[in-house]
Amino acid sequence: MGIRKKSNKNPPVMSHEFIIQNHADIVSCVAMVFLLGLMFEITSKFAVLFITVQYNVTISTNGPDETPVNYFHHGIKDLATVFFYMLVAIIMHAIIQEYVLDKINRKKHFSKTKHSKFNESGQLSTFYLFSFVWGASILVSENFLSNPVSLWEGYPHAMMTFQMKFYFICQLGYWFHALPELYFQKTKKEDIPRQLVYIFLYLVHIAGAYILNLNRLGLVLLVLHYFVEVLFHVSRLVYFSNENRQTGFTIWAVLFVLGRLLTLSLSVLTVGFGLVNAENQGFDLATGNFNVLFVRITVLAAICLTQAFMMWKFINFQLRRWREHSQAQTLKKKQAPSKSRSKKDKANGVNGVNSHGADSPRAKKEKSS
């Protein structure tokens, strides 16, 4: 699984530059150790903790056939699984970067600023699109869209299908992988605080929905959010290829506001009304029931504050774009009169000489005076 970037320099072994250039190969070797552990009986029990989804429970369905169905719940062993799929995310990140984004960058010759933004949008648009399609397929298969009451009905939703649990494991693994990528990608110091904020917000909300057994609501909100984010990053990629194509940003702006309203509406409906009237009230760690007033207020406060923060960032982004557009229009207006003056000066110069090359009567008079 050689994913080594070409470089004329050979940095010292285990130096910072060596680790950055060869981080994908190093991580691939670590992941291979876990995969090879499955081949031996002594280590297979340990390797399984990292590779496969844990806490399997088999439940027989009520029916004539009594078909057994596998469900999963969360636990402390999930940290090992999240760690392994964090390694997988680092490897996939390096593959997309080297074999797709770097080739496009070499052809387009972007500036340093556009180069970093193009890489960011390229990576995130791929992840958002994959997560949106995968999450939407789970929503359809579980009938959450056709039956919105299921978002709070039967809470706590401690038992999850394989697809549901694996989806949240991969989400956590991806956003944890974003932390070491700040080092591997040599992120600028001024960009690190911004990226740490949104990584932290993703981890808190995804882990919160997973641990508090609000996985159904969390899945719906993630799919909705990822759809809007896909449109933004695809629009930015299109903008980098042709700066005149900005229609995508307009569509994204409308959907962004609608997405925030839908997020708040679904959250208040599920947590503020649905869980309040649910049958299972109280706090019980054994059954995974967190349906108490303090938890509900905390969840709603976290969601509302996050949406307010995103709207504040959105408004600042739109104001900055409006200022840049107005400045560009002002420069165009200033340049237009100067061009017209230069054309008039050239015309006056031509009129000073007649068609035979001789001076005009006006020119002769000026010379004699």
**Helix proportion range:** 55-70%
Give the low-confidence spans.
1-6, 352-358, 362-369
Major sheet summary line: 2 strands, antiparallel
* Beta-strand proportion: under 5%
Rounded Rg: 30 Å
Instruction: Categorize the overall geometry.
Output: globular
Q: Mean of residue pLDDT?
A: 87
Query: Roughly how many Å apart are the termini?
Result: 88 Å
Q: Total number of helical segments?
A: 11
User: What structural class do the secondary elements suggest?
Assistant: mainly alpha
Count of β-strands? 4
Strand order of the largest sheet: 1-2
Order of helices and strands: HHHEEHHHHHHEEHH
Give an account of the 3D structure.
The chain has 369 residues and is mainly alpha-helical. Helices cover 70% and strands 4% of the residues. The chain has 11 helices and 4 strands. It has helices at residues 16-21, 23-37, 41-51, 78-108, 112-141, 162-184, 192-211, 215-241, 247-274, 293-351, 361-368, and strands at 56-60, 68-72, 282-284, 289-291. Helix 2 (23-37) crosses helix 3, helix 4 (78-108) crosses helix 5 (112-141) and helix 5 packs antiparallel against helix 6 (162-184). Residues 1-6, 352-358 and 362-369 have low confidence and may be disordered.
What does this entry show, briefly?
The protein is mainly alpha-helical and 369 residues long.
